[in-house]
Amino acid sequence: MDATGIGLWGVPLAILGGAIRVSTPFIFVSLGEAITERSGRINLGLEGTLVFGAMTAYAVAVMTGSPWLGLIAAAIAGLCFGLFHGWICKFRGVNDIAIGIALMLFGSGLAFFFGKPFIQPSAPDLPAIPLGAWSDIPQVQAALDVNVLFLIGAALAVFLWWAFRNTRAGLIVRVVGDSSDAARAMGLNPDTVRLIATGVGGALAGIGGAYLSLYYPGSWTEGISSGQGLMAVALVIFARWNPLGCFAAALLFGGAGALGPALQSVGVTQGYYLFYAAPYILTLIIMIATSSPSRSLAGAPGELSITK
Amino acid sequence: MSATTNSKAVGVEAIGMTMRFGAFTALDDVSVKVPAGSFHALLGENGAGKSTLVKCMMGFYHPTSGDMLVDGREVTIASPKDASALGLGMVYQHFTLVPSLTGAENLVISREKVPGVIDWRKERSGLAQFMERMPFKLPLDVKVAELAAGEKQKLEIVKQLYLGRSFLVLDEPTSVLTPGEAQEVLGLVRAMTRAGDLTVLMISHKFHEVTAFADDVSVLRKGKLTGTGRVTDLDHKAMAAMMIGDQPIAALDSRAEPKLDAEIVLKVKALKAPDRTGLKSIRIEDLGVRSGEIVGIAGISGNGQKEFLEVLAGQRPRDAGEVMVRGTTYAATRAEARALNVRLIPEEPLKNACAPKMTVAENISFRTFDIDGNGKPVNWISAGAIRAFSARLVEQFKVKTASLSSPIASLSGGNVQRAVLARELTGEVDLLIVSNPCFGLDFSAVAEIRARIMKARNAGAAVLLMSEDLDELLELSDRIFVMSDGALVYETPIALASVQTIGEHMAGHH
């Protein structure tokens, strides 16, 4: 069978493949943000963390030759960013959103500064599992070439969904996110819990960044994230702070992001670039559709500054 | 895994408790003895030192001097943790349950030791066993946010018992409950003290609760113990005397005969507006308030009263319906309010009716600063006129303030409310809309504010009074409506009003 033999079927197939490929950073960033927001803080700095994570992972992978070391380095860098955000936000009168924006710019700027020498060299990729090997259609093979991080992200979503209900740590995060007073009455320190939650959120965003530079698109450039970290924050609200919802929403965004390239690949030459804007338009539509001037969002953590 | 629940009630005694904050003595040598298995009431006005006393007992504060005995033995309680280790617990006035967690999750996570991974099957059977021993029946699998106020209050108490506490401080436990719910909760708690399972110290300012449920009572005034004794030996008058001393109380004007054919000043027809959540709406089918009458609206907070007031005040858009004042459509603009003499006293006046950081004088002149004596707009605002105007009102309404140029936020609650009353009740008033005017104020301020409202009514104002305090409504209103779930569900003239029936409608049992 030749490559063009499946005709228009290539579009949904490419969207599926794209969804799997493009969604992975969304999954990690949004799960990280879900943990942070469930604890009552919002960290807009994850965009910066994502970019810095991408640069760190790429640089470490180039220097050591191991993508896994790069991944770990990115997670550690993200953890530091998250802890920094969490630490600053514990002071009185500090606004978590403003700090987040500052850290977003800081993270990107720092990544560009340190990343300059790494634009040229190439780093080893993270491994993928050829789940499409049973088929001899190259498009199917391409679509089902699934990176391990995607599978880890899916498992993580299920785990978090379970953990928010069934573990002490999960319940504590929810308590702190919903009522600082209740948490204090239980002898918990909300600042500490939020510090840890923001740190973990940052580490996950760092891993998302590693995926960007080490698998797809698979190289380090300054425009590597193009706002995915910010979209992931919107996605958490869309998913109503539910990890499984985050996973599904990430797939949806990933699929929307793959629409443009997919149309191009089947020979649509006019206006396909409009579809490159699909994820951004989707973000806008979702934000408008799920918000209302006269009520607060159902399911929002009570301590979250944007929904208070 | 489950907490100890069969522990017997303990007796608690505070001896010579004194608490000074700088030069201010909040608590002056107060001793209270609560024997095991008794129900003790602690009476006093706001600021009398009730909370300070229990906070000292529970380890939130470190008293300047004083001792604690638990079951006759001297103990040191340096922190709430020490208190809970001794079986002492407190149920706060404001709920400490986490709204988005279920009852079961709330109970389990509040335990001292929670396993890393929670085995819900085991926990659930443990909880079911525990609940069998409780007099309360509660749905534990529902999110706390979806429980009624009475159920939340019960869950708070159950939580303390689940944690193995056998001495409970209840801080005004019935302030958010309907009369029926209050009866039920306190009745059950009382049965547990009778059975010797529990000792209770209840902070209250409602005499009828104290008489109906408590064994003993201690009364505080200005940080001093002014009386203590068996409840059976004391009547309401004796308790009130201990509570407020000999300060003069403003007497309510006698009610002028209402005229049945008086002009209908406020008319609300088929009003519909979204509520706070945006998921439900409030609907007021038909409400008229005549000149010279007070129409009271009863209801548990959160049933749409606040939204209704906001619509009348122009703070909330309405979907449909009409609000008419003296026959003309009213949209609550400044010009309309001025032309029709509509005045508004919202709840929590500092937050809703004042600019907290602006001065007392400025706040008092909000209605008049931009017009001259003839009601014409002025180009230049005269600071002198503002001061003279507010100086007169401060004098007349007995607002206690350090100076006219103090920020109004520095005044006590009663004086903020006096300043707002001065602003709203000066000049001609045809329609007065009031919400919870006496919430959190002390006896003398309450009496004075109620007297002013009654005076305005007798002078011919139409008054719409929303209140969560049923006693206040019964004292002031000519007619009472009950608001439940966003609608007016019941109306009664004051002569036929019964607490029982009103309470049932508040709870939505009809």
UniProtKB/TrEMBL annotation, chain A:
Keyword Methyltransferase appears in the UniProt entry: no
Transmembrane spans: 6-32, 44-62, 68-88, 97-119, 139-164, 193-214, 246-266, 272-290
Any one Pfam family match given in the protein's UniProt record, by short name: BPD_transp_2
Alphabetical keyword list: Cell membrane, Membrane, Transmembrane, Transmembrane helix
Any one Gene Ontology cellular component term annotated for this protein: plasma membrane
Membrane-topology descriptor: Multi-pass membrane protein
Annotated compartments: Cell membrane
Annotated signal peptide: none
Protein name: ABC transporter permease
Residue ranges the record marks as coiled coil: none
GO molecular-function term, one example from the UniProt record: transmembrane transporter activity
UniProtKB/TrEMBL annotation, chain B:
InterPro entries (UniProt xref): AAA+_ATPase, ABC_carbohydrate_import_ATPase, ABC_transporter-like_ATP-bd, ABC_transporter-like_CS, P-loop_NTPase
Keyword Zinc-finger included in the entry's annotation: no
Domain ABC transporter: residue ranges: 12-247, 266-510
Pfam assignment, any one: ABC_tran
Keywords: ATP-binding, Nucleotide-binding
GO MF, one example: ATP hydrolysis activity
Family: Belongs to the ABC transporter superfamily.
Full protein name: ABC transporter ATP-binding protein
